């Protein structure tokens, strides 16, 4: 799993939460888009959790870039601005899912597990 979020606190909480789940391996993390682009071609991962604030503008091109780098990987976008319109745009660009970042972290874990991302 790869996690990208500009906030160390949020990334740290995600990593802590995900390490509680058996068979989950965090293979990389990033705080800015440049780190994402530099690391991903070298990594093998099944799920990338990317905060929308990290995506380079336009976000749709960034998502398409992620899918070109690792076509088999699922891309989950975390959003502070969760609207059906945002979700539709991100999914049309290739995101597998869009999650509301304001949810409690345990709810995010349940969503990820239920959707069989973990």
Automatic annotation (TrEMBL):
Residues the record lists as 4-aspartylphosphate modifications: 51
Entries under InterPro entries matching the protein: CheY-like_superfamily, Sig_transdc_resp-reg_receiver
Entry annotated with the keyword Phosphoprotein: yes
Top-level division of the source organism's lineage: Bacteria
Keyword S-adenosyl-L-methionine: no
Keyword terms of this UniProt record: Phosphoprotein
Response regulatory domain segment(s): 1-116
Protein name as it appears in the record: Response regulator
Organism (species): Candidatus Nitronereus thalassa
